[in-house]
Design brief:
Length: about 450
């Protein structure tokens, strides 16, 4: 019973916000002039509230009712609503703080998949683009009509699981113009920085990194292979790895590549695998294991995938290796697509600034998303209301509606009001009130 109570109290919004996010903001240094109109913590809390409440724009956030102002003060602890900046590298610590909370709740145990490893999916995403607004950190893209687009991107890493919808954002590395660089920054360069930062925090964690073919290069594999507890599963393609596929085909012809077939209700899984191949001619010292996989559905369609991995392949583990490799898509489907299509307004330009504002907004959005994912995975009472309303977009809309008209002391009270508004069962509301007391304690 104690474990359940602890989990509920640690995974509700008010505990996550005041126990992790607000504490992070309080640690942020304010390097501005002493006569600044707004304190830094109000700026950060306001930015977080925009994404937590799924506001469509800064303009919509500025036009507020009296109840909203009251709730921003009581729920988010905001004094005055500012528009100031902050350094993103300090905010980045928030992802590690939330990871520690997820670990404390105990949810990570259910995310360990192969040999108790966590699966970490890595992919890049663009979060700002304009042909007129730009700064010194903007990347540039030239078009056929001789115009130029300025954009910001970042490389994200998220803990995923083949059988779970929720993902936990582990870290985000900005892909921006580096100081003194003549060329655009790129995902591969960002990956070296990202893996280095993750190594400083998670080298003792058993992890399997799953990435697309862009990362199947010697520097990336060496970086990942340098950590004893880390493994990798990275996509490869015939055009980009001719030597590797040639070695594999030679093994097949000689009967040295194992074949294995598994059938289920949806179709047939066919595996072929070989261990100890050279990544390419230029990096013969980088030894990899290769998995070739065909999925034949009941409709007769065939899908083909291939990966290199540091995991020694056997008949017993190829199915799980395949599932980990294919779970890479969850960072796109469950993270980026959710941010774009589930009221987070990821592609909306909330602000650019001349230094770090664009990255700060992206980090605040990711932190708000992380808090939501923790609630969705672990907070039973949040899940009850979400289940009754059936759609996250409707839940966010309902929370905003309560926020605009009813002053409330915390987010637990807001959630109770949503339950009452839709006449959700009395027993559910009773449980929500118990949850509110747990969060306060």
């Amino acid at each position: 019973m104690e474990k359940v109570v602890n989990k509920e109290s640690l995974s509700c919004f008010d505990s996550l916000y005041h126990g992790v996010i607000s504490r992070l903001f309080n640690r942020m240094e304010d390097s501005r002039a002493e006569n600044a109109s707004y304190i830094m913590v109000d700026a950060l809390r306001s930015g977080f509230a925009i994404y937590s409440l799924k506001c469509a724009s800064l303009f919509s956030f500025r036009k507020r009712s009296q109840a909203e102002d009251s709730n921003l003060a009581t729920v988010y602890g905001i004094g005055r609503i500012p528009t100031d900046n902050a350094k993103p590298d300090k905010l980045r610590q928030g992802f590690h703080d939330l990871f520690k909370r997820v670990r404390k709740i105990g949810v990570l145990d259910s995310y360990r998949y192969w040999n108790r490893h966590l699966i970490v999916s890595v992919d890049g995403v663009e979060h700002f683009c304009s042909k007129t607004i730009n700064c010194k950190h903007c990347l540039q893209r030239s078009h056929r009509d001789c115009s130029t687009s300025f954009y910001h991107a970042m490389l994200s890493a998220a803990i995923v699981h083949p059988d779970k919808k929720e993902v936990f954002v582990l870290d985000n590395e900005p892909i921006v113009q580096q100081d003194g660089a003549a060329k655009n920054d790129c995902e591969r360069n960002a990956a070296q920085r990202l893996f280095g930062h993750l190594q400083s925090l998670y080298s003792k964690q058993h992890m399997v990194f799953v990435c697309d073919a862009l990362y199947s290069c010697a520097p990336g594999l060496r970086k990942l292979g340098a950590v004893v507890r880390w493994e990798y599963i990275i996509a490869v393609k015939p055009d980009g790895h001719k030597s590797l596929f040639s070695q594999f085909e030679d093994r097949v012809e000689r009967g040295q590549a194992e074949w294995h077939t598994i059938e289920d209700e949806q179709g047939e899984h066919r595996f072929s695998y070989a261990n100890d191949l050279a990544l390419n001619d230029s990096n013969a010292d980088v030894r990899v294991n290769m998995l070739y996989y065909e999925w034949i559905g009941n409709d007769g369609k065939v899908q083909v995938f291939s990966w290199v991995t540091s995991i020694k392949l056997t008949k017993a583990n190829v199915y799980k290796v395949m599932r980990m490799g294919r779970s890479r898509w969850k960072i796109e489907n469950e993270t980026f697509n959710t941010l774009k299509n589930q009221s987070y307004n990821f592609e909306h330009n909330f602000g650019h600034g001349q230094e770090n504002l664009c990255t700060v907004f992206a980090y605040l959005m990711m932190l708000a998303f992380y808090v939501d994912q923790i609630q969705q995975s672990s907070c039973r009472y949040f899940r009850i209301v979400l289940r009754e309303l059936k759609a996250r977009a409707k839940l966010w809309e309902s929370i905003r509606a309560v926020f605009k008209i009813l002053p409330r002391e915390n987010m637990a009270e807001v959630l109770i009001s949503v339950a009452e508004m839709y006449q959700i069962k009395t027993g559910v509301i009773f449980k929500l009130r118990i949850a509110e007391k747990l969060c306060k304690s």
